[in-house]
Amino acid sequence: MSRTPEQIAADRARYEAHQRAGLAFATKALPEASPLPAVPLSADSIIATETVAGGWYWSTPLRKGEALRIAQLHGPASVALVCWSAKDTSERLNLPDTVKVQWDTRVQKGRVLFSDMGRVLLSVTEDSSGGAHDVLLGGSTAAANAAKYPGATTRNTRDNLVLAAGKLGLSRRDIPMALTLFAPVRVSDDDGHFAWQPGLLNGGDYVDLRAEMDLLVAVSNCPHPLDPNPDYAPNPVEITRYRANVAADDLSRTATAEAVRGFENNARAEA
Question: Domain count of the chain?
Fold first, then answer.
């Protein structure tokens, strides 16, 4: 259906208004990495704690205002994460938009994760690695593992997420590109090659992710394709689900004009 000149003019005016607001917005500086060791969560805020074994997967509903603390308490581990709106699972994590809208490939404290509807799914409220996470490559596959670990029995991120999605009533076609936490991947040269930079991690790192709408979350604890360890030996990770607080000047909600608009979109969807 074609749009009328009036509709086109209204859309243009709305775009120009957003552009002016963005140019006038003073983007806030992001903080340093969160402290190590992590500040303990209060006992009355904790809902549940799960140990995800090396090579395995886990899924959970996550209500708005709840959060996950994902921690490397047992040694290095890369955790791939995907999520969907619990209200409408056709709305899901969109990493290309997360990067594009915030002009940064670093997912760190003060940043948010966007859906493909321009809404905020998760806020990064703590991150001891200062953004040493992979938003570009995704997780492992059976073929990649077979080439990297010949003769070994392994599990991989793709198949794990298919299983996790199935338990949530979803299929492989519903799985978006995964964010891989604690995977220090960076572009290493002018030709665009990717490199694993272990110096970006501290050992014992953790990240806290707060839900900004009701979600379904799935994770896979498998080695990243660029992890230089020649042996398949993933360590367990600890995931704590807890009730989070939102300050009036919450950084994730106010750091950028794009985040502000994302939360406005959340509010419209809830109205």
Answer: 1
What confidence tens digit (pLDDT) does each residue in 192-235 have? 788 999 889 999 999 999 999 999 999 999 999 999 999 999 99
Extended strands (E) in 53-139: 57-62, 66-71, 79-85, 112-114, 120-127
Radius of gyration of the chain (CA): 19
Sorting pLDDT into bands at 50, 70 and 90, what band is 29? Answer: confident
Residue 195 belongs to what domain range? 5-270
Q: Are 109 and 206 in contact (CB under 8 A)?
A: no
Instruction: Please give the Cα distance from 233 to 32 (Å, whole number).
Output: 31
Region of residue 99 (phi > 0: left; psi between -120 and 50: alpha; otherwise: beta): alpha
What is the spatial distance between Cα 225 and Cα 232, in angstroms, rounded to a whole number? Answer: 11
User: Is 156 strand, coil or helix?
Assistant: coil
